[in-house]
Amino acid sequence: MNTENKLIVDFDFQLVINFFAGISSQGPGGEKETLKALSFLDNTSSKLKIADLGCGTGKQTEIIASNIDCEITAVDIAPKMIEGLNKRIKKKNLTNKVKGLVASMCELPFKKNEFDVIWAEG
């Protein structure tokens, strides 16, 4: 039995993406934790512009979009994750609130102060 610990960077990135794309949520916690974190936002003003960085297949994105007045740009480096996000958002009828974007968190294509909230869960 191999007991050697490995870091995620030691694996083929596509193998990691394929594994995580097949599960409902890529981060720790669940809806209860997302809603608790969401409760700290001041949602009394106009529609919030949110960047969800590292969104995966969008479980948390879906929860946010379903619970507050917002416009979300959901970002992930893996096209397969954004494909999963787009399917989820379409199925939940949230396409008017969420758009997916394939991009690296290290090189985001946004202007300074473009968003009210930066969300990164997981």
Folded structure, characterized:
It contains four helices and four strands, in the order H-H-E-H-E-H-E-E. It is of the alpha/beta class and 122 residues long. It has one domain (28-119): 3-Layer(aba) Sandwich (Rossmann fold), CATH 3.40.50. It has a four-stranded parallel beta sheet, with helices on one face. The model has no long low-confidence stretch (mean pLDDT 86).
H-E order: HHEHEHEE
Give the CATH level 1 class.
Answer: Alpha Beta
Classify the fold: give the CATH topology: Rossmann fold
Oligomer: single chain
The structure class reads alpha/beta
What low-confidence regions span 5 or more consecutive residues with pLDDT below 50? none
| CATH architecture descriptor text | 3-Layer(aba) Sandwich
CA-atom Rg in angstroms = 15 Å
> Helical stretch count?
4
Count structural domains.
1
Number of strands: 4
Strand order of the largest sheet: 3-2-1-4
Q: How confident is the prediction overall: mean pLDDT? A: 86
Q: Residue share in helices?
A: 25-40%
- Let me know the largest β-sheet: 4 strands, parallel
What key attributes describe this structure?
about 15% strand
SSE topology sketch:
Elements: H1 13-21, H2 31-38, E1 48-53, H3 59-67, E2 70-76, H4 79-91, E3 98-102, E4 117-119
Parallel strand pairs: 1-2, 1-4, 2-3
Helix pairs in contact: 2-3
